[in-house]
Amino acid sequence: MSAQLEADVRTISPEMPAMFDGMKLAAVATVLYVIVRSLNLKCPTAAPDITCQDTPLNRYLLKSCPILTKEYIPPLLWGKSGHLQTALYGKMGRVKSPKPCGLRKYLPMPDGATATFDLFEPQGVHSTGDDITMVICPGIGNHSEKHYIRTFVDYSQKQGYRCAVLNHLGALPNIELTSPRMFTYGCTWEFSAMVGYIIRTFPQTQLIVVGFSLGGNIACKYLGENLANQERVLCCVSVCQGYSALRAQETFLQWGQCRRLYNFLMADNMKKIILSHRASLFGMSSSNMEAADLSRLYTATSLMQIDDNIMRKFHGHNSLKEYYEKESCVHYIHNISVPLLLMNSSDDPLVHQSLLTIPRTLADYCCQLLPSASGERSNREPLLTSLTASHKENIGHR
Q1: Which cellular component terms (GO) are annotated to the entry (predicted)?
Q2: CA dihedral sign of residues 22, 28, 31, 32
């Protein structure tokens, strides 16, 4: 029996190394396939897709900014993945982020809240010799101390721009709330107060309105709410916003591009911000929050649940649908008559492709002259441009 077993082993053993080599090759092939798919290495590069009317201003901009018409060549290996660009830039940005020096301003609001923004003076003279201020609205839960805002402000200062950066109400960890309310998806009160301060303090300045993600929604909604808000505004730039929270709601619950995971992570961050101000939001006698709302907050796993149980109640909205409809800039953006640049990335993990039909439709059909505040036709040439990059560049985070 022992001799027979030895014979069997001698017969089988020469075949085992070949089988293991085949398994190794299969494993390596599988890993390479996953890497190629996850990094989108086979995805072709292309120039940005620009939708705009053929006007002298648009032609001038396209001629002056050749980057808008050139093919975007991303960094090797990780440059074609929106996920890796977001993660790596987030890590590298914190290491290499500049630290511009600004002055923090505090603005009392009619409801008892205290808005804050940081003011950064220019580090040189603007090329035109004009006094121009960028009024900047960051993304969800963000403020002037975020690395992408610091990078943007530092570059803008060196080009001769003054910068005013809104700190979303409740976003700064060292600033306590003075009323039972924090920032929401489309509340323009704090942004309006900041712009008003800039206009009063610098009566000679002209404005460039800039918004990132949620901040893009607020900036466009602010301009579209009242034509008077567009006075002194040279142009508006919106970066990576979704335009309609109601339409984005369904896509944000899908697993495509890992949006459901991003939704969970962003909801977790929102919970931390809300709970850090628990005493102000739930403890004040004037608060609309109840103990049950706090309990539902702990179990929330998506931004929509937090919006429904907490955020919409700050402004008395009766339902999540009403909240999203009234706070989305899609209902106001067509009122904007100043030059408007809407920038989105075609591989943005958060903004679904279906949402990009909104800026494309506006750029195609809504570029007509609008009545001015006095009721007369404006003599300013409007510009509504939708620019969609082929691959996500490091232009901001939510």
Answers
A1: sperm flagellum; sperm plasma membrane
A2: negative
Does 112 reside within a domain? yes
Q: Smallest Cα–Cα separation from 48: which of 397, 381, 382, 342?
A: 342
Residue type, 82: G
Backbone angles phi, psi at 166, to 5 degrees: -70, 135
d(CA 181, CA 194): 18
Q: How far apart are CA 190 and CA 196, in angstroms?
A: 10
Strand intervals (E) in 96-220:
103-108, 114-120, 132-137, 162-167, 206-212
pTM: 0.85
Q: What is the pLDDT of residues 206-249, one digit of tens each?
A: 999 999 999 999 999 999 999 999 999 999 999 999 999 999 99
pLDDT category at 378 given cuts 50, 70, 90 is very low
Distance CA 50, CA 69 (A): 8
pLDDT in tens, 177-205: 999 999 999 999 999 999 999 999 999 99
Q: Sign of dihedral through CA atoms 77, 32, 92, 214?
A: positive
Pick from 273, 256, 172, 239: nearest CA to 398: 239
DSSP 230: G
**Domain presence at residue 368:** yes
Q: How many domains does the chain have?
A: 2
| Identity of residue 186 | G
Neighbouring CB atoms inside 10 A of 29's CB total 10
Distance, in Å, from the CA atom of 239 to the CA atom of 152, rounded to the nearest integer, reads 12
Same domain, 15 and 92: no
